Fold:
Amino acid sequence: MKNKNTISVILPIKSAVSGFFEEYLNKAIESIKVQKEQFDELIIVHTNENLLTKVLSEFDFGDLNVKLESWTKTANFADQVNHGVSLATSNWISIFEFDDEYSNIWVKNVKNYMDIYPNVGAFLPIVVDVDDKGVFVGFTNEATFAANISEEMGVLTNETLHTYQNFQISGMVIKKDLFVEYGMIKSNFKLTFGYEFLLRMTQNSVKFMTVPRIGYKHSNLREGSIFWNYKNGDERLSEDEVKFWIDAAKKEYFFNTQREINYEPQEI
Amino acid sequence: MNQEQITKLERSIQNMKDKTSRIYFVVQDTKGNAKASIRYIYQMAMALKSEGYNPIILHEKPEYFGVSDWLGDTYMTELPHKAIEGSNLEISPDDLIVIPEIFGFVMDQITKLPCGKIVLCQAYDHIFETLQPGQTWSQLGFYKCITTSEKQKEYIGSVMRNISSSVITPVISDVFKKQEFPPKTIISIHTREHRDTVNLIKTFYSKFPQYRWITFRDMRGLSESEFANAMKESFVSVWVDPTSGFGTYPLESMKMGIPVIGLVPNLVPEWMNEDNGIWINNPNMLSDVIADVVQNWLEDNLNPTLYDEMEKTISNYTDLTKFNEEVVKTFSDMMDTRLSNFEDQLSKFITIE
Structure:
């Protein structure tokens, strides 16, 4: 274990085939390089897709401390993140996506907050959501500051999650031991794996605080992304299935271990 | 001149020398609400008390709420208080009475009192509120004025003839300290008119719905400690007071390390410069400027010079010892002048006798 308050970035990648992959990746990695205070390592858990392997092997990561970890099982965002976390040498981890960007002040601010609030287990950034043209769509995680949403301004609670679901875990910085102890991300969840994760962590008294600074830029519904696929692609979910996964998250978060859960379409 | 008058004069001279002459400070009852102008009066009275003078706080009605709730008990217990109504006030020629500019009607009532009279002008826009058209302070027997800034002194000189003004610069209370914890997404707002607060908040949320999660906190009607506690969570404060005479609110904010977005008042405060705040002239631009500052703050993009300049500015308004010295010097100079007038009178009388 390294010194107090070190952060490993976990970047799972499934494929380089989707449009503008290299352009996105360049921006994503650049956003790590230009941090005012540095992350401590970057762990990329990638599939063995030929193009992806080639791009990554030739990519210029500069001075970053990078681990390229090959994932030979079926591509799965949650499994790849969990594996990356198991390899992390820092005491905090941050989940990253190749089509997203950290703001250059994120590490500086989050480390400052870690010192000031030692009892906080996870810090969420205010996320700027942009469309595929980079145009501002809205904020995420900002709602912890809205009036009457949370008992303590800036703190995300289990109660809040039951009434308001629009929080996201990408960009989040969380203590590695808490992430592992309370069951990591459940890979058998579709759509609501992040929501279930937040419900479960807050149920286990992990304190989540939003740092009131823009920390992360998220590409909303990029073609080929997980959520785009749930909405428009091969894995498109029906309204009924969306409801199922939301309800499932609200029930399964009481269990730290992953249990079998399958959606069965309602017969009409 | 009879012996009785000579004796009275001698007694007055002795009172002034012994500092037992009464210095009455008229205050309004804020009903428990913190008010910088009232704190200023109490601080002056306390400064004089600690130098052996005899200040007395004078309130209108016997039922006086007091300042314990927001200024602390010391000021209430250390300083004697008296009501104008229902008590038999003793006023001698050697006494002084200090009356805020808003009490024009009281000035009118005490014109004939033989004591020394001083106007305390903290809000220049109230000067004419309770005076008759054409009426001046000097017509009511007031030739001395204490005010809070050179700008106000200049203004008073331009509208009131035969008035000699002294400036005693206020100090910002110690309650306003730098924040221990990072601020939250709260904007403190203080406007002269309550409806301006409401309008500004509604305009902001309407024009910038993406920032509806940013909270505005109306700083009206809070005790001083509530005020400071509420303010310390803010990342920026908004100040709209076109007729401000000094600008206590922005200075309190600066003292807490919180940048201020403000509308430049009609009488530009002497502490205001282009680097120590975000000062604008057009009230219609306020919501846009707030949105711009919010965005910049969220991105850690506010200019560090702003914070440095705030610190420099506020350093001129924190020295209570200097304030106390200014108060004591101003009053002792007045007393000395009055004393020498009394002594002149006495020597003339004795010569005639």
Observations:
- The longest strand of chain B covers residues 234-240.
- Chain B touches chain A at residues 181-186, 210, 212-215, 233, 235, 298-300 (CB under 8 Å).
- Chain B has a mean pLDDT of 93.
- Chain B is about 40% helix and 15% strand.
